[in-house]
Amino acid sequence: MIERGSRRKALIYLAALMVALWVLVPILLIGLAAFSPKDEVYRWPKSIIPSHFSLETMEFFLRSYGVIPSLLNSIWVALLTLVLTLIIGAPAGYAVARFLFRGRESFRLGILLTRMFPTALLAIPLTTTFIRWGLYDTLFGVAFIHTAMALPFAVIIATGIFIGVPKELEEAAMVMGCSRLGAFMRVALPLALPGLAAVAMFTFVISWNEVFAAGILTVHNRTLPAHILTTLQASPLYFRFAGGFFMVIPALIFMFFIRRYLLHMWGATAER
Amino acid sequence: MKTDRLLPYFLILPTIIYLLIFVFAPLSKAVGLAFLTDEGRFTLGYFERMFSDGRFLEALKYTFLLTITIVPLQLITALLIALLINTRFKGSQLFLYICALPLGIADLAAGLILLSIFTQHGHLNSILYHLGFIEKPFYFISYQHMGFVFLSIVLAEHWRATAIVLVILVAGLQMISKDLLEAADVLGAKPWQKLWHVILPLLKPSLQSALIIRTIFALQMFAVVLALGGEIIPVLAGEAYFWYYIYRNNHISAAYALLLMVISILMTWIYLRFLRTRSEMRA
């Protein structure tokens, strides 16, 4: 029996190791490509480990025309999206979590429904609207559509987070003389803050990664993915690899911070 | 207490207004773009042009083929990994975190990562050389080898987006009560019987959500396809992009987008219809 148990254990660890390698090795490979010399990409036959570590490829990428501005654009758009999404979405999440009101289920259903619309369906008609409003090719324009894409997720996830904050604590604060707003600000908000921070990071990543709408709604003020996409065919391989690696970095950082909330967040989407 | 009754509506109002302006207004406008000429007359001409376009059928075919290859593959992989995590071996939390990493990775980035493996002087060719299988690099990504381009796209999406299915399924597995599983053990159920008769039926709502989310996004696949082989394999979302970006025709672009939405809604309806969960059956 003991023998069988330890064999089973060994099999579990072996399987886990294989899966972990499947996930990690591609990230490692793009990292190696980004930090090896430029001509290494075209060398044949290539050794698995690059001949030496070099910043040449990354330097070329960062010095290429349009990369730094698009990088800054991406950060601005993602931050704007994050702020807009939280300001608009968090109260809605709070309402759905705390109040039983008429129309609540229709509201939740409507939110879920909006996720079904392809990005193309929003981005293409918005081009003419944005030209009229003077938002075409602006960072605000891109942030507005990214907010529209992130908002449904944010409302759903924020709902789950506020459900996790006991209602009784807020009620106790109100009994002790806090106003409704005061109770929210002093009790519910601080408790929900780590979860809301996870929502914020997730929103940031949605915006940082989005390429279709950003590509369609901008000409000069491109975000990083839009810049990489539109120069894709014309750029050398090492540029593309460095770009790919650069896009992955924030994802890795944010995933580290939101790891505790992963199940919480996505479990909530399953409870329809 | 009147303010208390109105309060939730004040709180959801910004979301409603925002979605009306930036989701539902564009939606109705897209319908207008696809069915009305610039002068405002009704026409089916844009759809006729879309259907008769040389790349349309190919795009439709590949969008479907990619979706029905990738989504089931992801579901099976994610289920296996979720069951592995559910054994709660030591370190399974770290393992879950590693497996969830691709959740934050962009489709474009995933495409570029797989490109570094499949490209002419990429890692795969190098490994094949070192193992002595080939002398010269093999052109995986080219018009001559559509199958390999297809495969690389499948691998990229499988690698990147299995994480979301996994996280949904792990969350679902955790909600299954231990008592039921123990009861199955007591009654002498074999592991596969437990999986088939207890775990899978209880996991159905999670499976359904994961299927719907993944299918909707797989149908919209775009940047991965572009990163791996440019226009070698056409897809619907890519055509919508090119019709706007290159030909500056937002009518036909909107027609493609509408078609994508119709397919998404149809697929969701099929999933809801044929994978009914128990509570829905009672209702």
Automatic annotation (TrEMBL), chain A:
Belongs to the binding-protein-dependent transport system permease family. SUPFAM superfamilies: MetI-like. Keywords: Cell membrane, Membrane, Transmembrane, Transmembrane helix, Transport. Its main location: membrane. GO terms for biological process: transmembrane transport. It comes from candidate division WOR-3 bacterium. This is Carbohydrate ABC transporter permease. The chain crosses the membrane at residues 12-35, 75-97, 109-131, 143-166, 187-208, 237-258. It is found in: Cell membrane. GO terms for cellular component: plasma membrane. The keyword Transport applies. Residues 71-258 form the ABC transmembrane type-1 domain. It is a multi-pass membrane protein.
From TrEMBL, chain B:
Its main location: membrane. GO terms for cellular component: plasma membrane. The chain crosses the membrane at residues 7-27, 62-85, 94-118, 224-246, 252-272. InterPro entries: MetI-like, MetI-like_sf, Sugar_ABC_transporter. The keyword Disulfide bond does not apply. One of its GO terms (biological process) is transmembrane transport. The keyword Secreted does not apply. Residues 60-271 form the ABC transmembrane type-1 domain. It is a multi-pass membrane protein. This is Sugar ABC transporter permease. It is found in: Cell membrane; Membrane. Keywords: Membrane, Transmembrane, Transmembrane helix, Transport. It comes from candidate division WOR-3 bacterium. Belongs to the binding-protein-dependent transport system permease family.
